[in-house]
Design goal:
The protein is mainly alpha-helical and about 180 residues long. The protein has eight helices and no strands.
Length: about 180
């Protein structure tokens, strides 16, 4: 039987090489995936939150974001910085707010007429953030909002609509990252 030989670099009292623990994969968050995604994928996700190619391109270009708060702050700023043609296009692409299915027909009719009057006066869909409202509050909030804003001067209404668009976008963006999970 051959004698067991130690490697030439190891003496009889050389401690064994340390065992390195296996690296555990770091869980990937939705923000990590967004930060590392190809630009086209990031823009696609962003366009689902606000249909503005300029806005989505700006947000995607400034990645990576250290946390969701930083992303939301950048998104807010980019909405406020939209040039008038970009804002007009984003407002025009917004769908009308919807009422819960069990809303009375009279409320639907009144809201339809108010939407038509608003779009005729301002040239875009009425936008209002409904995030956080109970379904039972939606119809009253929509009707009250649209009726009160119909009296606005077009320049004032553009400022209000921009703020509502920012709130809607922020809500959609936060929801997109929360639904994606960690």
């Amino acid at each position: 039987m051959p004698a067991h030989r130690l490697p030439e670099h190891a003496g009889p009292h050389t401690p064994p090489a340390p065992v390195r623990p296996r690296a555990r994969p770091v869980p990937s968050t939705a923000l990590d995936r967004f930060n590392g995604a190809p630009r086209e994928d990031a823009v696609r996700l962003l366009l689902a939150c606000l249909p503005s190619p300029h806005w989505a391109g700006r947000i995607a270009t400034h990645r990576p974001y250290p946390d969701l708060a930083a992303l939301l702050a950048a998104a807010d700023e980019a909405v406020y910085d939209l040039a008038p043609p970009d804002l007009t296009a984003a407002l025009a692409a917004e769908p009308r707010p919807t009422l819960p299915k069990n809303t009375y027909a009279a409320a639907r009719t009144a809201l339809g007429a108010a939407h038509t009057a608003y779009e005729s006066r301002f040239g875009h869909a009425f936008v209002i953030c409904l995030h956080g409202l109970l379904p039972t509050e939606t119809a009253d909030h929509l009707l009250e909002g649209i009726r009160s804003r119909l009296a606005n001067d077009p320049d004032d209404e553009r400022l209000v609509a921009t703020e509502e668009l920012r709130r809607i976008t922020r809500s959609r963006l936060a929801l997109a990252f929360l639904e994606s999970g960690p």
